[in-house]
Amino acid sequence: IYHSQRLPALEFCAMAQSPLHSLAPPLEAEATGQVAEPTRAFEVHRRCLGEYVPEVRRLLADGEVCTVNCGYMKRQRDITVDMRAILVDWLVEVHAAHGLRSETLFLAVFLLDRFLSRWSAKPRHLQLLGVAALLIAAKFLHERRLRNSDLVRLCSEAYTKRDIMRTEVLILKTVNFRVFTTTAVDFLNLFQLTHACPEVQHSLALYVLELSLVEYRMIRYTGSYLAAAAVLLSHALLQRSPFRTPLSAECEYETRRTIKTCAKDMCFLLEGARHGPRQAVARKFSRPALHCVAKLAFGSCRPSTTASGSCTRRQGVKVKTRPKVRGSAAAARK
């Protein structure tokens, strides 16, 4: 199933991910306050991929056909949104402890949401569904660091290996064995190549994406919207130079309004990440290997409103505000 559904261009993009990340330079000294630009080798790799970008973009869009009903939680009688958030937060801890790829985590949560959108689950079976979905994603992406015995131990032996295997079969039958889908990480890797994003910006965008993964209301956005909004938000927060090509114009299937709305929702998640009840994502991205992006202080991401029509800048986010108009609506239109 893996080799029949995984397309060659996507394989090339996945294989190029690791060396490209190592070519992107880290953040410069804090005294300069600037983000280091990509190295020359990174530019060479990006130019070599240039002729394949339209094909890769088309293949990523074709792989995004599977979507999740964003209102499936209303039909669940026994589980709530908070239960799902606690489960995904725990999966982030398991994912970080075993050093799995980001694609594995996003694919596991996507499989979990697809299953819950078709079946009702009991609270005692929710953790079992989570570990089974994570194991399917790890096998599908050839991750050999995760085993059934490890998952049984992590669940405090509440389930057996046979229970996990049966749940795997149930999930696969529910999704009709169609495991592959294009996740937000796939689009993020493409945007990093096409826009020459440094490694620290990639870590910040991935941090915002994993925060969105825990939040249930963010599943209404597809992976392409989430990746585009995360790149734009991280670009503004790090105060980098403007893109050579507008991100929303490059993705023909997206609209600028939806990307802006998604970016605003991500701002609220980023503001409450440090003091929220679930801290697995923040702890994961507080490590030096991920540039400690969870510890960066950006202030308030939300735009501030003023009485004048000038542009205001708050921690790297430039926002145009509308002037206050006195009088009736007819006078305002005039």
UniProtKB/TrEMBL annotation:
Cross-referenced InterPro entries: Cyclin, Cyclin-like_dom, Cyclin-like_sf, Cyclin_C-dom, Cyclin_N, Cyclins_cyclin-box
Q: Boundaries of each Cyclin C-terminal domain copy?
A: 182-299
Q: Which Pfam families match?
A: Cyclin_C, Cyclin_N
For this protein, the record's SMART domains field holds:
CYCLIN (SM00385), Cyclin_C (SM01332)
Give the Cyclin-like domain ranges: 89-173, 186-268
Q: Which PROSITE patterns does the record associate with it? A: CYCLINS (PS00292)
Gene3D superfamilies found in the cross-reference section: Cyclin-like
Biological process per Gene Ontology, one example term: cell division
Keywords, ordered alphabetically: Cell cycle, Cell division, Cyclin
Q: Where is the composition biased (Basic residues)?
A: 315-325
Disordered: annotated segments: 305-334
Q: Which family does it belong to?
A: Belongs to the cyclin family.
Record PANTHER family: CYCLINS
This protein is called Cyclin N-terminal domain-containing protein
Which species does the entry assign this protein to?
Alexandrium catenella
